[in-house]
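Whiteboard transcription, Tuesday session. T.W. wrote the structure tokens on the left side:
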């Protein structure tokens, strides 16, 4: 997929970050609302957690990253008045109220720090050594804060829908696997940007739960088994076989890292320099491009030309407007 041989020039991105207006009061207010929304019900706990076994961090005993069975972990917690907590893709054992309080405190410190850097004009940009992604002030920022910055600066986000799985579908196509019935269906769902919605209908899941299933399928060990993964495997056996096969050949994280590297090749190594060569404003945010509203059509032409060159069928979301590339 890689074409460009240029070395990434981070000074270009930092100059674009410096051009933007940052409203400190609006950003702090949005951060406070986000933090205040965190409650004990924000997390899956105990037997609500679908995974059967996983790595856990015990915040009480200070034992980290050890593999546990859910039932045994719940029994352990019950004996000690603790709670098994799932937060995103991570699992913890802790007092639930204390965990929520510590979560809020850490978010307060983190959000305060990233907003402070913007206001003080402390900008950074650099490539992640493991996956090639470009990290900068906005990449790790909460969506609600990025939206404020976009609104205040007349910016639009061009997002590759179900991005990593669209890239996976392209990978399957390159390996000549799309003639398999389930792979063909998966390819169509991914390239049309409807994977999470249609998967939710197939497995009777909410869209966000379907998205979470796919993220766990990509990022967790091939040994992890859930009822949802079992259902997905029944419908897409060859897709799961490909994913698990990549993990078995190396490490569990090799599959997700490969997708992230390919994503970085697309957005950072190729699209970004092409857009900057055209004299246009652009920030990359992993699987999306943040550009000026007045320049969005010019950027889309560059994106379309590159994706057509790759024969990469996909769907873009441009501030709610769907753009199909085929």
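and on the right, the sequence the group agreed on:
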């Amino acid at each position: 997929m890689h074409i460009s041989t240029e070395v990434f020039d981070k000074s270009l991105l930092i100059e674009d970050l410096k051009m933007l207006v940052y409203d400190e009061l609006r950003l702090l207010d949005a951060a406070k609302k986000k933090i205040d929304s965190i409650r004990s019900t924000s997390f899956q706990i105990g037997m609500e957690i679908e995974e059967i076994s996983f790595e856990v961090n015990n915040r009480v005993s200070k034992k980290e990253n050890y593999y546990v069975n859910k039932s045994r972990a719940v029994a352990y917690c019950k004996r000690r008045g603790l709670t098994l907590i799932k937060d995103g893709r991570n699992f913890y054992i802790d007092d639930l109220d204390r965990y929520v309080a510590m979560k809020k405190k850490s978010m307060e410190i983190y959000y305060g720090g990233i907003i402070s850097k913007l206001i003080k004009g402390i900008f950074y940009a650099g490539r992640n050594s493991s996956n090639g992604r470009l990290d900068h002030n906005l990449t790790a920022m909460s969506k609600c804060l990025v939206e404020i910055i976009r609104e205040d600066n007349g910016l639009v986000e061009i997002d590759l829908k179900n991005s990593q799985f669209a890239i996976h579908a392209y990978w399957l196509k390159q390996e000549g696997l799309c003639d398999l019935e389930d792979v063909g269906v998966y390819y169509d769902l991914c390239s049309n940007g409807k994977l999470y919605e249609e998967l939710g209908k197939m497995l009777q899941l909410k869209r966000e739960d379907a998205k979470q299933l796919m993220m766990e399928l990509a990022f967790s060990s091939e040994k992890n088994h859930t009822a949802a993964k079992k259902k997905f495997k029944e419908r897409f056996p060859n897709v799961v076989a490909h994913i698990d096969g990549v993990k078995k050949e190396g490490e569990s994280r090799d599959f997700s890292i490969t997708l992230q590297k390919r994503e970085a090749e697309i957005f950072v190594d190729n699209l970004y320099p092409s857009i900057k060569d055209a004299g246009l404003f652009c920030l990359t945010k992993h699987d999306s491009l943040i550009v000026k509203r007045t320049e969005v059509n010019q950027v889309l032409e560059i994106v379309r030309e590159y994706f057509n060159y790759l024969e990469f069928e996909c769907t873009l979301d441009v501030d709610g407007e769907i753009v199909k590339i085929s």
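Someone added at the bottom: The chain is about 55% helix and 15% strand.
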